[in-house]
Amino acid sequence: MLSNKTCIFSLEYKPFIIFLCNLEKLARKNLDLKMIPIPEDENLEFKSKDILNKSDEDIANTLVNEISNRRIILIGVEDSGLVNPIRLGKDTSNDRIGGITDRIRRILNAVSRIYGNEIYLEPVIVPVGDRECIVALIGIKGSS
What we know:
Shape: globular
Helix content: 25-40%
Order of helices and strands: HEHEEHEE
Number of domains: 1
Distance between the termini: 37 Å
Largest sheet: 5 strands, mixed
Number of helices: 3
Number of strands: 5
């Protein structure tokens, strides 16, 4: 288990990761996170947990444009910033999240071969409360 002072995210991408580290710290303290304290902007997009009711292919197709234009997508947060976390289980399993992420990566790789804008994508499950979470998809643009 990590210490309370350790952030599980690489600080190499500081401007985009500090927010997630703060979420992680809140979760470790078992605080009841109700709202995301910053609004959506050109780097951050909120997605309702209802997106997980779609097929993996539909989710990937929906999120690929968002991750191309944003750096972080938080699934489990409403447009208003209200946290509506995802219950830990089949929707947040490594197989499901990994499969969706792999589909998005394949689409992004095909696009990057044409346009040269490579994007690295990493999913992170951020615990919120007891047996619930937010899924963060972090996209980092690479050099072309």
